[in-house]
Amino acid sequence: MKSIGRHAPAGVGVAVLTWGALLLLVLAAPATRLAAQTQTDAPESPFFTTFNPPAFDFNDAFYTANGINVSRLDTPGAARFGLFRKTGPPAPNGFVNWVVDNTGTDPDRNNVRILATTGGYIDDGTGAPTQFISIFAFLQDQSFFTGVANARGTQMADVVSNFEAYAALKQIDSHGVFRPTPCGTMGNGTTPCFPVTSVATPALRQDWRFATNRNPIDHSAPFGYFCDDILGMWIITYFWFIDTGFGPHQTAQCHQMLTALGGKNGLTLDGTPIIKTGDELNFLEGSVVGSNPIPGFLGTNPPSPACAAEGKEDTGGADGGAVWLVCPALPDPRNGAITLDAFLDQVHRPNGFPVDPALTVNFLCLQIFGAFCSELQPGQRAAAMQLVGKQQPAAAR
Amino acid sequence: MPDTRGKNVSRRHFVRLAAATAAAAAGPLLRFPGGAWAQQARPKTLRIAKWAHFLPEYDRWFEGVLAREWGERHDTRVIVDHVPVEEVGARAAAEAAARQGHDLFMFPWPPAEYRQQVIDHTEIYQAVSVRHGNVDRLGHRSTFDPKTKQYFAFADSWMPAPLCYFEDTWATVGMPLGPLHYDSLRSGGQRLRAKLGIPCGLALAPSLESNVTLHSLLMAFHGGVLDEQGNVVINTGARTVAALKYVKALYEDAGSPEQLGWGPAGNVPAMLARKTSCTVNAISLLRAAEASDPAVAGKIRLSPPLAGSAGVMAVPHVTNCSVVWKFAENPEGAKQFLTELIDSSKAIYERSLGCNFPIYQKTVPDLIVRLENDSRGDPPYKYKELKDALHWTANLGFPGFANPVAMEVFNTFVIPRMFVSVVKGELGPEETARAAEVEVKRIAEKWKQV
User: Fold this and answer.
1) Which of A233, A287, A324 to mutate to test the interface with B (most CBs of B within 10 A)?
2) In whole angstroms, what separates CA A324 from the centre of its chain?
3) CB atoms near residue A218 (< 10 Å)
4) How far off is chain B from A22, nearest CA to CA, in Å?
5) Of the candidates B371, B358, B410, the residue with the CA atom closest to the CA atom of residue B158
6) Which pTM value belongs to this model?
7) Is the ipTM of this complex over 0.95?
8) Contact of A33 with A94, CB cutoff 8 Å
9) Among the partner residues B181, B224, B309, nearest to A161 by beta-carbon distance
10) Sorting pLDDT into bands at 50, 70 and 90, what band is A152?
């Protein structure tokens, strides 16, 4: 980002000022304040043509047809948006997570439009901060599935097992103690352990990674996310650094690798490196991957012992947290899918600055100009960058 | 053809007529260039060694109908010897060493170790492709040798290896859909054993079932024996050790000592007697239950393989691979038999009660419809869990091709022995992984010399 600003032509400065003034006007109009949000239409940006719809919750009939128990969904534990969690994380103070909007025309959706837009990395190997999902509900055990197959004869529980949303819970507690193992069934029974009962943004050390790219064509999965996972569901894969990976018992090998990866990707709220790709995580877990994803290390040998681990919550609900999410990714977040009253749900540092500003910038480019930053003119891009940390409500401050 | 009714037929005409009649009768059938089998004047013999199917009635049909009728069409006496699965390796090795035995040997796995004792099967694949299209990915990667660019075997069918579990048993711990992933297999299995005293029933003692179960588990844990280039990676990194620790914990939390004493297919009677809550097996287990105890069968459900850190994947329970030995006395007949075998894929699927999935998809075009409404299934849609099986099944040898090293590791039970050693506490996970690495490297070195 810095390099763009430094090497931008002189005219860009003028363009930034112009765009900046326009942006302030546009963003001021749909201020997503609580008082104004009992019912609202999606405000549109004047800078692009809108043709991608924003995210609305599915209606009950569609959930039922796809094997989801609506009565379980409509409970406080599942926190289905539209019924619960109008305020509170991820929405910052004074903002709401969803609004009622009767302009939608999709027969499979209801009138609850989701404003909270969670950002994350794509799982295609690049780790690009280009994925945006909309929170609908959290599923804690198998009772959320009716066992009824969908119209294609497939159980949703079988489909969703292939689509992982990678959650990174904080491992440093409020006393500054590193907790190398999750509490509950994923852990090894030792303490201190970190709780796995919430994946709300304040509980995370870094942003999510979403496997939207998996599909049967390249044999990465038996199903395709946008083809078969029509509720946009995820199974949550929790990943963490183990005692040999970080903390007082860290091995020299893990220390070197984590330092190198932190230099490449930046650090999480715990001071551990941000993990953006599957190869990075798999390698730190001790798997042989195609090529070494850690800078400065040659060869293909992963660390042994491993530096990291991953797991999934008990599907019987023994862990008390979310096993699955109904949080569909926006198939194409451009041209209106991210409305002007939406807000980005991402991990922030205590000073309010995002852990990964690239995610913020992409969100702003999409929201204001209807395109990814890489598709914009330098002036537009620079204007969006200026808003980072200013306009966005910082949910985790 | 001239009308010969009521006419005197000269000897020359008779010979022509007989030849034309034979050609017409065999019209739909494919022949190799030269049609050597068709020119054979006197009856020949085709000797087939075939692994004994899990369903005896299938073998009776194979020998009594399919092979007999083929023999009648081709003026050949077909002899089928059924070899128990656990004896297949020794019998094949003995034949290869003696350079005599059967013409055709049908294995339940890719016999890559015999690539030098068998013909190149490319011409069979080519002949079949005319009628049924190209071989699918599983068949190709199970029988092709990328070094020599030859096929060392011919694959006609395969069996998926789903998870079989008791729905009512798992429902008692809130998992009526089964454990779904390996973490829940352990945590749910632990609660199940504590609550009902019913252990988890994965096969561990060396056998075909444990080989399939544990190769799949290792793969799902992002581990493996060889990488795509054939390098030994079983102890590179930490995934094998992680898998070993997992299985030890699974055994201690949710297993049973009986698992370590099971013989071939020992996991099946344990499930049928409801002594275990789940296992990995071909659907022959369910078919056996449907025949012997429909009430038990009604409670057994199938699900795709458990998800691990590498996703949802498994190796096949069986990859039906046939070879024509170089020393076969009737190689042309053996090749013709295999070529025409694919014409019977639909019957093979039906007679195996749905166990043998076709390698050539077009031969059973309504496979998914059949899986969604199985006449024996209770409920009839039970088998639809298998409709995506080809997508979650990887060949033995994955991520590479089935090669001699991978298959010798498979046939000498390196992986089950490794896991059992840790489960029994004979060695620690790290030591065991190192010992397995030494063994696999020795095998790899041996095949470099061949």
Assistant:
1) A287
2) 14
3) 9
4) 47
5) B358
6) 0.89
7) no
8) yes
9) B181
10) confident
